[in-house]
Amino acid sequence: MGHDLTVASSAAQAYVELARKTYDVVLMDIEMPDIDGITATRVIRAGGPDSAATLDPRVPIVAVTAHAVEDVRQQCWKRA
Fold this sequence. Notes:
The protein has 80 residues and is of the alpha+beta class. It is 34% helix and 10% strand. It has helices at residues 11-20, 37-45, 70-77, and strands spanning 26-29, 61-64. Strands 1-2 form a two-stranded parallel ribbon. Strand 1 (26-29), helix 2 (37-45) and strand 2 (61-64) form a beta-alpha-beta unit. The radius of gyration is 12 Å and the shape is globular. The N and C termini lie far apart (30 Å).
């Protein structure tokens, strides 16, 4: 369909990519090897870590999770 994508296997790698290039959307896994996706989203919204400033902190971020519990869904809906 003509879309380009970049896969980041951790939040740290995602921060580097978001500092290097702007994206139309981020699909954020809630469970990652280094930190959870909710925390990673908060870091991105705050401008990224000191070592990798996010080019577009307002990029749309879509939470992706297999969790069906209400508490996790509510955390995803809260403004990060």
